[in-house]
Design goal:
Length: 126
């Protein structure tokens, strides 16, 4: 990976929280990956110019803008204030994860990957 290194010192308690979060969210491959995304999100959310936000989000394929009903948004904000979620994005991602990444869908994807690997191996063996 290109880029410069920075050092970040965290207390043991913060590292434990970080590691527990990563363990429960496999989309983050490691501490550095989560830190990069968290820093970018924090800056974008707290003061990056609107144009820079739009350009960055447009460049990412997995970004979706959704208008939610007012009551749902208020409920999410209540959960954020209560400490259940860190952000609206956290809440939405968690809901999507619960809805779409079921045990059955996970097993289906794993079966498809295994079949793809078997097919690739068979082709290579020929």
């Amino acid at each position: 990976m290109d880029g410069e290194r920075i050092s970040l010192r965290l207390e043991a308690e913060d590292l434990e929280l970080l590691d527990e979060f990563i363990e429960g969210h496999p989309e983050f491959s490691n501490r550095s990956h989560l830190a990069r995304l968290a820093i970018r999100e924090f800056i974008e959310h707290n003061g990056a110019p609107t144009e820079a936000k739009a350009d960055h989000r447009a460049a990412r394929r997995n970004v979706v803008t959704v208008e939610v009903p007012a009551l749902a948004h208020l409920t999410i904000e209540d959960f954020i204030r209560a400490g259940v979620y860190n952000s609206v994005e956290d809440a939405v991602v968690e809901c999507l994860r619960e809805k779409f990444i079921t045990k059955e869908s996970r097993e289906k994807v794993l079966r498809q990957q295994a079949e793809s690997i078997r097919t690739t191996i068979e082709v290579l063996d020929r």
